[in-house]
């Protein structure tokens, strides 16, 4: 079984490619909403596990489902999950591939400050003047780190989050008012971003380098066109042993892993040869 750890829109396309190639695939997502999208997309023909898994749960999952390869197609900023999957693959002898959406070229965007973490982002916002609006297109998980310091500095944060109860409750618990919350499903076009920035009178944009699929380029273009100062959180750098940004390569990799698994099962005495083949055929 090929395990695709999903968490993005393009992960669904990857799962579809593996499924249409006739390969046995199982997907996992954290949120109920994500599971619903996958179940609807494949009409229940692809098994979906819903819920977060810690390392022990991941090990049990691999052993129970007969996983021989894992494709990490989580969000570019799901660092902890990727680190856990790398350790799992090494410990369980499971092949690992990181599928990551291409990055956005940011060289032509003025007023852009690239930062490595939220501490640097908050330092950059030290230039903001009291009362200015900071548009947070960061996802809900970052809000507890970002919103309280902004409120302390008497800035006006606007949080754009998914339209689910947990995200809305988190915003309210952090002290945001109704006019400081935009609950909508993205990604958004450049025109929609412009409209939201104008409506909220935003002077700053804080966002992540989540790639064009995640709408990063549309946000950056809209902000640049309106003269907003942009703080861009760069992707975490991890030592992926095998990675690709190409769907076809990821599907081919999955097929190769199943072929090698079958050879090892039928011809166990040729393991040394197979290990050599694997090492010279990685993407």
TrEMBL record:
PROSITE patterns: COBK_CBIJ. It comes from the Bacteria. One of its GO terms (molecular function) is precorrin-6A reductase activity. Pathway: Cofactor biosynthesis; adenosylcobalamin biosynthesis. GO terms for biological process: cobalamin biosynthetic process. Its EC number is 1.3.1.54. Keywords: Cobalamin biosynthesis, Oxidoreductase. The keyword RNA-binding does not apply. NCBIfam families: precor6x_red. This is Precorrin-6A reductase. It comes from Heliomicrobium undosum. The gene is cobK.
């Amino acid at each position: 079984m090929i395990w695709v750890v999903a968490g993005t829109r393009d992960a669904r396309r990857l799962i579809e490619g593996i499924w249409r190639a006739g390969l046995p695939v199982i997907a996992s997502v954290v949120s109920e909403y994500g599971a619903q999208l996958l179940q609807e997309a494949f009409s229940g023909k692809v098994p979906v596990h819903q819920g977060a898994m810690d390392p022990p749960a991941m090990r049990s999952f691999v052993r129970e489902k007969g996983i021989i390869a894992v494709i990490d197609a989580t969000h570019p900023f799901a660092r902890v999950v990727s680190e856990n999957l790398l350790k799992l693959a090494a410990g369980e002898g499971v092949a690992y591939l990181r599928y990551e959406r291409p990055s956005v070229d940011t060289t032509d965007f003025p007023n852009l400050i690239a930062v490595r973490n939220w501490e640097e982002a908050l330092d950059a916002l030290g230039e903001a003047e009291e009362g200015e609006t900071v548009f947070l297109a960061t996802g809900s998980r970052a809000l507890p780190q970002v919103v309280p310091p902004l409120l302390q500095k008497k800035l006006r944060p606007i949080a754009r989050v998914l339209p689910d109860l947990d995200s809305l409750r988190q915003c309210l618990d952090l002290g945001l008012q109704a006019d400081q919350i935009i609950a909508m499903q993205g990604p958004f076009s450049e025109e929609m971003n412009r409209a939201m920035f104008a409506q909220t009178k935003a002077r700053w944009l804080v966002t992540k380098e989540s790639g064009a699929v995640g709408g990063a380029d549309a946000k950056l273009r809209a902000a640049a066109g309106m003269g907003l100062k942009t703080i861009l959180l760069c992707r975490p750098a991890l030592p992926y042993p095998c990675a690709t940004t190409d769907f076809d390569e990821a599907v081919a990799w999955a097929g190769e892993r199943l072929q090698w698994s079958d050879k090892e099962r039928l011809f166990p005495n040729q393991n040394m040869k197979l290990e050599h083949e694997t090492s010279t055929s990685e993407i």
